[in-house]
Design a protein that fits this description.
DNA polymerase, domain 1, TIM Barrel, two-stranded parallel sheet, elongated, binds S-adenosyl-L-homocysteine, binds iron/sulfur cluster
Length: about 375
């Protein structure tokens, strides 16, 4: 028998083709897509408005399987973090950040990351592999379903949406896993799936210049660029990708992107590292560097981890740095650190993954679970014991 297709791997056009191959009309694909992404349904027999013959075909050929949950923690400030199994001892994290008027999901695109920025613990972990479409969109599918369930909100378009914004700022460099990332973005924007506006979906990149241009044509969502330095010499050290795509090229790409972007500015992320990139001189150099790029700055207090040898700038320094940018008319925010108590803050998303022994232990439990429950594995599961 042919392998089962995981329908989470199919973006809207792909699902349409796949249903066509089964001899089904296009509107069936839309219906099915709504069941999957709006109702969070993974059981074909529950899709009551699909013909029984179609449900049987689906049962024989398809599965709806998000990555399995290894752990699920909620922080004192409401931030919720899931550790998800993506096979072969790899795990990635997804973080939900509730705020007064919105709920933001931070999704991962790779297990590990090859860019190896000096201040990032994901980078220190090295690159394991690219996530599939189903593993990327599966994070949104799973999180929305579980958040609704926890609040007693009904599934479907009428239920209050818990996730209103998505940021691709978890583990990995999204533009180095381009096709699956774009397919997942298309599902986020599709009215028969999550229906998010392009302004509410942000992709963060360390600066893969040719792919920034490609994204402008394929799926221009809001863009955040991890700058972290005010000159090439420093950025070469902090973000090794800068040696390939130096600042001049990166900023030119940002300007080109703005012609397609849903917002009229690029967000520059800047990780505040004590004594490294946080002086008044750096701030002024930064202003000159971005002078002709419409932008906002998001200063991220560095989240320390033991092997980094780096320290977070103190609050007074961050404030002074922000003031210089603001005095020059550049909108600047300082990112609040959320979920500190569960290691869900930026760049800490590798914490538990590095703890290989615990991951191995959980993996063993999961394979036992898989044997017991077969096809149900990979849906929303709680690891017993
Ligand atoms: N690879 C992409 C997206 C994931 S990283 C990128 O680099 O943009 C998301 C953001 O977290 C980036 O701006 C990154 O620079 C920042 N970050 C990484 N490690 C950090 C740390 N230890 N403290 C604070 N921010 C960090
Ligand atoms: Fe990769 Fe982004 Fe971390 Fe750099 S900051 S190593 S690009 S995940």
């Amino acid at each position: 028998m042919a392998a089962l297709t995981n329908l989470l791997d199919l973006e809207p056009a792909g699902l349409l083709r796949w249903c066509g191959d089964l001899g089904e009309k296009p509107f069936r694909a839309k219906q099915l897509q709504r069941w999957i992404h709006q109702f969070g349904e993974s059981d074909f027999s529950a899709m009551t408005d699909l013909a029984k013959s179609l449900r049987e075909k689906l049962d024989a050929h398809a599965i709806i399987a998000a990555p399995a949950v290894i752990s699920d923690h909620t922080s004192a400030d409401g931030t919720r973090k899931w550790l998800l199994d993506v096979g072969n001892g790899n795990a990635v994290e997804t973080v939900f950040i509730p705020e007064e008027n919105r709920g933001t999901l931070c999704v991962s695109t790779q297990a590990g990351c090859a860019v190896n920025c000096r201040f990032c613990s994901t980078g220190k972990q090295g690159f394991s592999r690219n996530l599939s479409v189903g593993e990327i969109i599966g994070q949104l599918w799973l999180a929305e379903t579980l958040l609704r369930r926890a609040k007693g909100v009904p599934q479907g378009p009428k239920g209050e949406r818990q996730i209103t914004n998505v940021v691709m700022m978890g583990m990995g460099e999204p533009l180095l896993n381009y096709e699956p990332t774009v397919a997942a973005l298309k599902l986020m924007l599709d009215d028969n799936a999550y229906g998010l506006s392009r302004r509410r979906v942000t992709l963060s990149t360390s600066g893969v210049v040719p792919m920034i241009d490609k994204l402008a044509g394929d799926c221009a969502v809001a863009l955040a660029v991890s700058l972290h330095a005010s000159n090439d010499k420093l950025r070469d050290e902090l973000v090794p990708l800068n040696r390939k795509y130096p600042l001049r090229e990166l900023l030119a790409a940002c300007k080109r992107y703005l012609e397609f972007a849903p917002r009229d500015f690029v967000t520059f992320e800047y990780c505040m590292l004590d004594g490294v990139n946080d002086s008044d001189t750096h701030a002024r150099e930064l202003l000159a560097l971005v002078a002709d790029v419409p932008c906002k700055f998001n200063l991220i207090p560095f989240n320390p981890f033991p092997e980094s040898g780096l320290k977070r700038s103190n609050n007074a320094r961050i404030k002074a740095f922000a003031q210089i940018l603001m005095d020059a008319g550049v909108v600047t925010t300082v990112r609040k650190t959320r979920g500190d108590d569960i290691d869900a803050a930026c760049g800490q998303l590798a914490g538990e993954v590095q703890d290989r022994t615990r991951v191995q232990e959980r993996m063993q439990k999961m394979s036992a679970y898989q044997e017991k429950y077969g096809k149900d594995f990979g849906r929303i599961v709680e690891i017993p014991g």
